Amino acid sequence: MTSPALAAPPNASADVAHRGALAEFTLQTFAIAAAELRKMRRDPTDIFTRSVQPLLWLLVFGQVFGRIRAIPTGAVSYPQFLAPGILAQSVLFTSIFYGIAIIWERDLGIVQKLLVSPAFRGALVMGKAVAAGVRGVTQAAIVYVVAVAMGIPLSASPRALAIVVGSILVGAALFSTFSLLVACIVKTRERFMGIGQLLTMPLFFASNAIYPLDMMPGWLKIVAALNPLTYLVDALRTAMLPAVATGGPSLLTDAGVLVVVFGVLVAVAARIYPTVVR
Description:
Layout: H1 15-19, H2 21-42, H3 45-50, H4 52-68, H5 78-95, H6 100-108, H7 110-115, H8 121-149, H9 158-186, H10 189-205, H11 218-225, H12 228-240, H13 251-272
Helix pairs in contact: 2-8, 4-5, 5-8, 5-9, 5-12, 8-9, 8-13, 9-10, 9-12, 9-13, 12-13
């Protein structure tokens, strides 16, 4: 039985049968991703403007709280502890508003053209998620370089960098797909912006991005355990601060949660994506 994410529309080309569904799905995914990334190449300033807020957190919030020592971070300084959380924040804040592009594409008629094509619905969703992941890595690189320039010691081993890149790719893809789901439901730019603003702060503060899980009251620990951002932060902190116990789940658990949640979101988005035009 074919998965909904791989299910092609009835008018799919017979070429799919020759090349195989998975190969066709992959080709279509990268075609959509390439089209999305061309938009970023045409407007590279967007990446830098969206990096301003995370940098302010590092430069201002990190330095001030590092001086007053209000948050216990064990053997590392507070700016060290904060850097992985701000990397995750930059991924969240950028990706959570990714869905507004879907509303613009609907208003311009682009979504309608994609939906009448023989492309897999899941490939349309996955392609946008892959592009969001690459965009997240680009922005995170800026934050990473600034953190190092500030003298914040972070691991730069090949293994650590590979984990950081992989985590950001999956994390950005996850939150961008969630954003796409919201866009399909609310359908208007005004409502989407309001809901996006409503979601970002609770997701950010109900995670371990700026303080350890041990500081949280019991009820907030439960919320944090259900928050995907917690697992993204923990994976980044494990890679970037390898000599320090994070006090969170293992790296394998972090990766498993992020991948499973992303897979579920893609499957759901593949079903409801066509409703954005209604």
